[in-house]
């Protein structure tokens, strides 16, 4: 553990428990002056003190993790770089705000997300109706954005659902890597559901009246198992799924329905790859995605999804973040178990290996990447193809990226042969040109919105903006 100056969080914990400094110092067997220095960030929070806090109050040590601070810091840096705010905010000021007043920092981030979403929806509605901009009404977040933010806020882990999935695996007497037949039998025996295979039509169709689940023949065994597991989740875990979905929906029916599907899919992944066996296999195999895919009989993308959710408090895996993009740069999935911040300001970085994957389909690419704030990550990327619709029809091709903080890289097989200590080995990337401070980047497409464009006629610094 590095020296962590996070007195603001300790002060907030003390105030939430209604304790004075003297009372907390006594409970932690510290002198009041020493505790006062910790709260004022004059001394770091040490491991022994952290363990005492955990023993006395039973709080999760992740409360004091630097990962959440870095995640919030990155988001606020993007928010406060907006030139429309009219005032420049330094990085030091943002760091102080996050470290000393994290509650206010999180509230600012939440307010900005709501404002951004409502502004986007209002502009779209105004354009559609042909109204003036000032006539556009505020709108709630788009359903898919609301659900995505909900998963992001939960660090892509739902303990109750994950534990329930392990129970369903045992109840159905499934075998790891060969779950399709077992799920079909369990659905029929336990829930009276008949699984039917069709030659054409939708990939999956559920008829509640006849309790028939129809699956398309061209689905692979693992895809059929996933669809059956999703239906089992909607039947057997309807109550906990619905309760979580209503929290995400905030009263909106469409968001509620989408959240139910997302949570059922989460359970399906947890059912096909039960937490403890999957984590044990991942650690044993060095988080080798392709070998895990072979062991559990699922696809590359499914394994990446599961790896990004291994955050059980008493058995944590490597905290990964996952992204799925298409050739045009559209991000259709982004999930984070930790601190990586995905930009919403438009675009991502073309130097990121997730885009290079399209040039080498089917091959696993590895990259050490460094963000402008100095944090370094190990990224693994590969293309995946969805569906085989027949001759002449376009296939759906995506690139899936799975990343983790560089400090976890030694646990991954993908770090073999890499010099993790050499700063020059890292590719400098950013979250998107408009919020990236690397002015000399050869791939820059737009100026950084946080500072004015300074044109130097004697040099070709801004060639990326000109016609070539």
How would you characterize the overall build of this protein?
Residues 10-64 form the HTH cro/C1-type domain. Belongs to the short-chain fatty acyl-CoA assimilation regulator (ScfR) family. One of its GO terms (molecular function) is DNA-binding transcription factor activity. This protein has 468 residues and is α+β, with helices and mostly antiparallel strands. It folds into three domains: 7-100, lambda repressor-like DNA-binding domains (434 Repressor (Amino-terminal Domain)), CATH 1.10.260; 159-272, Arc Repressor Mutant, subunit A, CATH 1.10.10; 315-439, Beta-Lactamase, CATH 3.30.450. Helix content is 43%, strand content 12%. A six-stranded mixed beta sheet has the order 7-6-10-9-8-11. Strands 1-3-2 form a three-stranded mixed beta sheet, with helices on one face. A two-stranded antiparallel ribbon has the order 4-5. Helix 5 crosses helix 7. It starts with 6 loop residues before the first helix and ends in a 40-residue tail after the last strand. Mean pLDDT is 83; it is low at 130-138 and 458-468.
């Amino acid at each position: 553990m590095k020296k962590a100056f996070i007195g603001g969080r300790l002060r907030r914990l003390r105030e939430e428990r209604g304790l004075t400094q003297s009372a907390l110092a006594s409970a932690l067997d510290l002198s009041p002056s020493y505790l006062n220095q910790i709260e004022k960030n004059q001394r770091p929070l040490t491991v022994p003190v952290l363990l005492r806090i955990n023993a006395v109050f039973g709080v999760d040590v992740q409360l004091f993790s630097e990962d959440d601070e870095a995640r919030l810091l990155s988001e606020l840096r993007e928010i406060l770089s907006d030139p429309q705010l009219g005032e420049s905010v330094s990085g030091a000021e943002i760091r102080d705000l996050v470290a000393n007043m994290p509650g206010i920092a999180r509230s600012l981030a939440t307010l900005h997300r709501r404002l951004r979403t409502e502004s986007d929806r209002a502009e779209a509605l105004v354009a559609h109706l042909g109204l003036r901009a000032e006539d556009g009404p505020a709108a709630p977040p788009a359903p898919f954005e609301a659900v995505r933010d909900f998963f992001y806020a939960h660090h892509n882990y739902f303990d109750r659902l994950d534990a329930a999935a392990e129970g369903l695996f045992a109840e159905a007497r499934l075998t790891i890597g060969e779950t399709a037949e077992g799920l079909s039998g369990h659905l029929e025996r336990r829930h009276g559901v008949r699984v039917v295979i069709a030659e054409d039509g939708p990939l999956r169709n559920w008829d509640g009246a006849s309790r028939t689940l129809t699956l398309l023949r061209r689905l692979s065994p693992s895809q059929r198992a996933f669809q059956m597991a999703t239906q089992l989740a909607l039947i057997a875990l309807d109550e906990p799924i619905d309760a979580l979905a209503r929290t995400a929906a905030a009263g909106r029916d469409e968001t509620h329905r989408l959240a139910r599907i997302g949570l059922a899919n989460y359970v399906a992944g947890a059912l096909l790859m039960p937490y403890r066996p999957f984590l044990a296999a991942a650690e044993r195999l060095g988080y080798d995605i392709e070998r895990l895919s072979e062991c559990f009989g699922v696809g590359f993308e499914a394994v990446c999804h599961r790896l990004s959710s291994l955050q059980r408090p008493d058995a944590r895996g490597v905290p990964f973040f996952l992204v799925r993009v298409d050739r045009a740069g559209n991000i259709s999935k982004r999930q984070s178990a930790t601190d990586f911040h995905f930009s919403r300001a438009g675009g991502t970085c073309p130097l990121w290996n997730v885009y290079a994957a399209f040039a080498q389909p089917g091959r696993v690419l590895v990259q050490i990447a460094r963000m402008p704030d100095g944090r370094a990550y190990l990224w693994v990327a590969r293309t995946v193809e969805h569906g085989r619709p027949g001759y002449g029809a376009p296939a759906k091709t995506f690139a899936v990226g799975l990343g983790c903080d560089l400090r976890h890289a030694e646990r991954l097989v993908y770090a073999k042969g890499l010099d993790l200590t050499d700063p020059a080995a890292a590719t400098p990337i950013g979250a998107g040109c408009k919020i990236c401070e690397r002015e000399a980047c050869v791939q820059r497409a737009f100026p950084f919105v946080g500072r004015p464009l300074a044109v130097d006629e004697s040099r070709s610094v801004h060639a990326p903006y000109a016609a070539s």
